[in-house]
Amino acid sequence: MSQNIEKITLEINGMTCNGCSSHIEKDMNKTNGIINSNVNHETGKGEFTFDTNKMGKEELINAVNSIGNYSVVNGIEKEDSFSTTSDTTISKESNKNKNQFDLIVIGGGSAAFSAAIKAEGLGLTTLMVNGGLDFGGTCVNVGCVPSKNLIRAAETAYHATHSNFKGIKPRGVDIDFKQIIKDKKELVSALQQQKYMDVVSDFENLTMLKGWAEFVDNKTIVVDGKDKYSATNIVIATGATTNIPNIEGLNKVGYLTNVSLFDLEEKPKSLTIMGAGYIGLEIAQAYSRLGVKVRIIEFTDRPLRSQTSDITDVLVEQMKSEGIEILPNFRAFKFEKRGKDTIIHCNCPDGSTTQIIEKGHIVVATGTKPNTSKLGLENIGINLTKSGQIIVNKKMETNVSNIYAAGDVTNTPPFVYTAATEGNTAVNNAFSLSKKSVDYTSLPWVVFTDPQIAGAGMDEIEAEAKGIPFEVSKLDLKHVPRALAAQDIRGFIKLIRNTETDKLIGARVIAPEGGELIQQLSMAIKFGITVKDLAESFYPYLTLGEGIKLAAITFGKDVSKLSCCAS
């Protein structure tokens, strides 16, 4: 049969680097009917030449949509549990073709869904407009869910090769890397459906639209430069993406971020990770334990610079023991290709320069930036921080009276659970006389390295800066019976109390599964529990939680000299 050749150009969401475009090209060129694929992540477009005798336009678009977390903007979108139309609108029949709403939510992640759920409860007609990542946003698609799944897989591999007990000799592990990634993809897909799409599937007043929103005025947006929609109030919940540093040659050599790294089904030869914040550290340890040689380049003096050095010292010792190379005070200033290798030119701590050779991939984990550049915020005069975050108060209000913002796009703590609270708060305050505020005083957080790092409230540096009279208790895990029984004494528990009130004002934990302690400490801070109360409460013996009691006792006694039964 003769070929009937046709060429089509599609706009594709979700690409961040050369790896993304190469991924799409590789998969599409294997598809029956595709003659040639040319995809450019910088323009966000893909040009496909295909034989119409073997596939139609709709099949081609569906083939692109089935690859990773990418999706076609112009054309027929992939099917999901909602009805889908060719203009990319996903909506209930009763809401179709309506351009006027009570509420417009821009974004599709945790803050946006929380806002939509609250709005449905209030009986508000709501339009959710989402561009970029698929509905569900960062957490379920490319953040919390996939990263923690890989971290747990990596822990399983590590414990199959390492033992804390002399009488137990591990025999090693066989790692099917491709299967791990496939399982991760299945989990992401299932949770994206169950925890997001299914939750709103029976909403009577919600319309969901795929596209890029831009403000015309404070009550009107235009989507993809075509259709206009208006609402009484608008919530901006567009999240954040990886901040790509402006370094010579970086865009030319190609790089990965968490968006593209987590979809690689072929195990990388090695990784050089740019940045030692929590994202870079979690990635480094997970991939190292899965058999990848890992290097971290950090331009400050130590990883996780936001935490005190006693915490980071414990983590650095562990990571180095696992073979992870950490280069603090190194600053990359140029990238170039030499054959298949990537050459990283760096300034060294002593002022000299060096060349680092990476045979695998570069991973950029140098923080995030808010997704505000394409919103047309200049048209409505929204106030931003120097880094581009939308400035909100504790009621999620911006400086424009009917515009609210929530989640990682704002100047608030960047966690999925804070985003959910903020989305709900924003809608409540937009449509209710009873205003609510979000209080971050006792906010708990966890870094999922091993040992885990967790915190709530302020640390000693913050307490000193605020002029609060304080005292610190620090208990090494070698004094906690549970840690001794497990023969794993890495880390410590640190409590900070107000010496005038004896109330707990902050806590930091670095310990295996230390994150499981932090909610209790957060609640103690929130409800004004004193250190005396913590010391005198009952704790099950041989639990890590008992370390809280011992840390509280340490303010007044040397626990190393106490019996296990003492209080």
Account of the protein in words:
With 567 residues, the chain is an alpha/beta fold. The strands form six sheets. Strands 5, 6, 7, 8, 9, 10, 11 and 21 form an eight-stranded mixed sheet that branches. A five-stranded antiparallel sheet has the order 22-23-26-25-24, with helices on both faces. Strands 2-3-1-4 form a four-stranded antiparallel sheet. Helix 5 (144-159) runs antiparallel to helix 6 (177-197) and helix 5 crosses helix 9. The protein starts with a strand and ends in a 14-residue tail after the last helix. One of its GO terms (molecular function) is mercury (II) reductase (NADP+) activity. It catalyses: Hg + NADP(+) + H(+) = Hg(2+) + NADPH. Pfam families: HMA, Pyr_redox_2, Pyr_redox_dim. Its cofactor is FAD.
